[in-house]
Specification:
Elements: H1 11-46, H2 52-65, H3 73-80, H4 116-138, H5 142-175, H6 199-210, H7 214-229, E1 231-232, E2 237-238, H8 242-248
Antiparallel strand pairs: 1-2
Length: about 260
C-alpha cells in the first residue's frame, strides 16, 4: 500500500468517522422526529373531537342539503307522477315554479323557543324605527338625542331614590315616636299630612315645596338622615352612633363607595 493511499483500517480514519457520525445521526433523528410530529398534527386535525351537538348539526345539514336518490321510495312515487330531476312540480307552463325545495331555517339555540329569534329581530327593528322617527321629529343629532335620553333616565332615577329615602325617613321617624315629618315631602305623600294644619299653612308649605327640585329634595333628605339617624343610603345601613358612622361609612357621596 502506497503512502498516498489512505488506510481505511487506520486509527486516524476511524477517528474521522467517529467525529462525523454523531452529527449525521442527530440530523436524521431530528428530521424524522419533525416528520412524525407533523403527521401527528395532521391526523389530529382530521380526527379532532367535536361536541355531540356540533356533529349532530353537521349531519343534519348534510342530510338536508343532499338530494334524494333514485332508489328512494318518495322519489319513485314522484317519478310515476311524471316528475323529473331539475324540473318543478305541477304544470310545466308555470314559469315561476320553484325547482328546488324550500330550505329549512333551523334554530339550533336551545335556549330560545320556536319563532323567538324572529320576534326578537322584529322587536329590535321596531325600536330602531321608532328611535329614528323620534330623532327626525325632534330634529336632533344622535349625540343630542343620547344626551336627552340620559337626562330623562337621570330624572327617573332621582325620583326613585327620593321615594326610597322618603319611606326610610318615615320608618326611622316612627321608631323615634315622631308623628309628623319636619317637611311634608320628607315622607311619602300618603303619610305626610298633618290633621291639625290649616288650609292656609298647607298652601304656604306647598308653594315653598314647588320651589325645590327633586334633586334638591333628595340632597336635603340625604343630609337629614345622615345627621339625625346616622343612616347612609349607599351603605344601606343605620349606624349605632356618630363614632360608628364615621368609622364605617366611607363618605357622603356615591363615588366614595
Amino acid at each position: 500500500m502506497s503512502d498516498e493511499e489512505e488506510d481505511y483500517m487506520s486509527d486516524a480514519f476511524l477517528a474521522k468517522l467517529q467525529d462525523v457520525t454523531p452529527s449525521l445521526i442527530n440530523n436524521s433523528a431530528v428530521k424524522r422526529r419533525n416528520e412524525i410530529e407533523t403527521k401527528k398534527k395532521e391526523q389530529q386535525g382530521k380526527h379532532r373531537y367535536k361536541p355531540v351537538r356540533e356533529m349532530q348539526n353537521e349531519k343534519l345539514k348534510e342530510g338536508l342539503n343532499k338530494a334524494i336518490t333514485s332508489d328512494n321510495k318518495g322519489f319513485a312515487m314522484l317519478s310515476k307522477m311524471g316528475f323529473k330531476p331539475g324540473t318543478s312540480l305541477g304544470k310545466s307552463s308555470q314559469a315561476t315554479a320553484i325547482t328546488e325545495p324550500i330550505k329549512i331555517n333551523l334554530n339550533t339555540d336551545g335556549r330560545m323557543g320556536l319563532g323567538t329569534q324572529t320576534a326578537v329581530k322584529e322587536h329590535r327593528e321596531r325600536q330602531l324605527s321608532n328611535l329614528k322617527r323620534k330623532m327626525d321629529a325632534a330634529d336632533l343629532t344622535p349625540e343630542e338625542y343620547r344626551k336627552q335620553m340620559r337626562e330623562a333616565a337621570d330624572k327617573k332615577q332621582i325620583v326613585w331614590d327620593l321615594h326610597k329615602l322618603q319611606k326610610t325617613c318615615r320608618i326611622l321617624d316612627l321608631e323615634k315616636n315622631v308623628k309628623f315629618p319636619i317637611h311634608p315631602w320628607f315622607w311619602p305623600k300618603d303619610f305626610s299630612k298633618k290633621d291639625d294644619s290649616s288650609e292656609e299653612d298647607e298652601e304656604e308649605i306647598n308653594n315653598k315645596e314647588k320651589e325645590l327640585t327633586d334633586s334638591e329634595r333628595l340632597e336635603m333628605l340625604r343630609k337629614f338622615l345622615r345627621a339625625s339617624y346616622f343612616y347612609c343610603e349607599y351603605c344601606g345601613h343605620q349606624y349605632k352612633d356618630g363614632t360608628d358612622f364615621m368609622n364605617g361609612c366611607p363618605g357622603p357621596s356615591k363615588d366614595d363607595h
